[in-house]
Amino acid sequence: MPELPEVEITRRGLLPNLPGRKIDAVVARHTMLRYPLPRALGRLLSGHTLHGIDRRGKYLLFRLGHGTLIVHLGMSGSLRLVPAAEPPANHDHLDIVFGDQALRLRDPRRFGAVLWIKGDAAAHPLIAPLGVEPLSDTFTGAWLHDATRGRSTAIKLFLMDSHAIVGVGNIYASESLFRAGIAPRTPAGRLSLKRCERIVEAVKATLKAALAAGGSTLRDFIHSDGGSGWFQQQHFVYGREGEPCRICGAKVRALRLGQRSTFHCPRCQR
Length: 270
Fold this sequence. Notes:
Elements: H1 4-14, E1 25-28, H2 41-45, E2 50-56, E3 59-64, E4 67-72, E5 78-83, E6 92-98, E7 101-106, E8 113-117, H3 141-148, H4 155-159, H5 170-180, H6 193-212, E9 253-257, E10 260-264
Antiparallel strand pairs: 1-6, 2-3, 3-4, 4-8, 5-7, 6-7, 9-10
């Protein structure tokens, strides 16, 4: 699933091309994704100017003067800018046409979402409950320490809880905890302030490194120009079960937490 770096990279790739341009048409080839496409989406968008593209967690917010189009890429979605006349491939479900270019949504598993809200997107039921942005100044060691008091959940699962912290999915939670030297099953409420500070520093460093590398391309994620990320080449533990740790040489192990595979080094992470 695209995580925060991949969604942010998609946003940045679209910024030089789309804001300030008028939407000419909407072509919907499949109206059922995770949720049904908004009714009369073409009427809602056509003729209106796109003013900006923001991100909240893993959601992209396309801001128009009369409302916001909210897009989630789901498990396998991608947004690409293509020539408007380019024939669609399998799983190309939606085009938003800007002159001779189209913003094309491809989603093989159809777990993505395209939603519309009139007014401020922050009021949408999927956006309102979201937690702190991990690259913001609000996300500090003191914040994490306060937020985890009394919590027995594993710190890996806490980092992935979007109601607490947004956008840190399985890949980057595993990688961040390796950088911090903390075992993923550690109860969040037992972490000291110093260890919380290490985790926050590691989360920020991991996400920034992923952004610099263009994200992780593991299955379906591609950039808006069709390119790929290569952060997966820098993974310390994710997807490396049985391989030697890049730091100490011990074999990377995998365990199950919250029905997800979690990768860690038993020697480096305590």
